[in-house]
Design goal:
The protein is of the alpha/beta class. The chain has one domain: Rossmann fold, CATH 3.40.50.880. Helix content is about 30%, strand content about 30%. A nine-stranded mixed beta sheet has the order 2-1-3-4-11-10-9-6-7, sandwiched between helices. A hairpin with a 2-residue loop joins β10 and β11. It is globular and about 50 Å long. It comes from Paenibacillus endophyticus. Pfam families: ThuA. This is ThuA-like domain-containing protein.
């Protein structure tokens, strides 16, 4: 039985407790043993983290001790999967660049705020994470992010739709979902999920389910292949 840890908290506007419960249900249905925690101290036991298959952060706009980030980073580098959504993963710790480097991006704006109707365009790729999924529309926050150019983009959305200081720039396709590697660990992110009702949209929920499973499979694949990762301990000047 695979083991997953969901850690929720931070800004209540993202309904972290409710989103964490949805994710718990998804993982239990896939026969995971799931631990749910509402404290960042869940990241304090480095060896325990390395014994997991998947870590799911659901924590927005907070500060975190560097040692806790180092522990998560080391676990993912060793093969543990990391998967999350919206501000719960890529607006978790704005001051910590190590976290941002690991996750692949950082939220910077949502022009038009909540209620923007936009299209999510699924990329044609070899990734099984988007097989059989078509473009779809959603009414929510449309995330503008600073994104690691190394990620594999699975879905995008077109900017601008709402007016703002960015509007006179050329149109851009902003990543909505992506994967990347951190050491031998797999990382999945989806910018959808402002609140629980967005996660409950069947297509969004299915994308998250596939992301969870893909990330959790990475550890076994790495062990089978006998691959290892050189330890990366972060940057000394990574946060204020």
């Amino acid at each position: 039985m695979k083991k997953a840890l969901i850690v929720w908290g931070g800004w209540d506007g993202h309904q972290p407790k409710e989103v964490a419960e949805i994710f718990r249900g998804v993982l239990v249905a896939e026969d995971f043993e799931v631990e749910v925690s509402d404290t960042l101290e869940a990241f304090s036991d480095a060896e325990k983290l390395k014994g997991l298959d998947l870590i799911v952060p659901v924590w927005t706009m907070a500060r975190i001790e560097q040692q806790l980030v180092d522990n998560v980073s080391a676990a993912v580098q060793s093969g543990v999967g990391l998967a999350g959504c919206h501000g719960g993963m890529c607006d978790a710790f704005r001051e910590n660049v190590d976290w941002q480097f690991m996750t692949g991006g950082q939220w910077v704006a949502h022009p038009g705020n909540d209620g923007v109707e936009y299209t999510v365009n699924i990329n044609n790729s070899s990734s099984p994470l988007t097989d059989g999924i078509d473009d779809f529309t959603v009414s929510s926050e449309q995330y503008y992010l600073h994104v690691d150019p190394a990620v594999e983009v699975l879905a995008t959305t077109r900017f601008p739709l709402s007016p703002g200081p960015h509007s006179l720039n050329k149109a851009v396709d902003m990543p909505v979902a992506w994967t990347k590697r951190w050491g031998v660990g797999r990382v999945y992110y989806n910018s959808l999920g402002h609140q629980a009702n967005i996660i409950e949209i069947p297509t969004v929920k299915e994308l998250m389910r596939r992301g969870f499973l893909w990330c959790a499979e990475g550890k076994a694949r790495a062990l089978e292949a006998g691959t290892a990762s050189a330890a990366y301990s972060g940057m000394a000047d990574n946060q204020l």
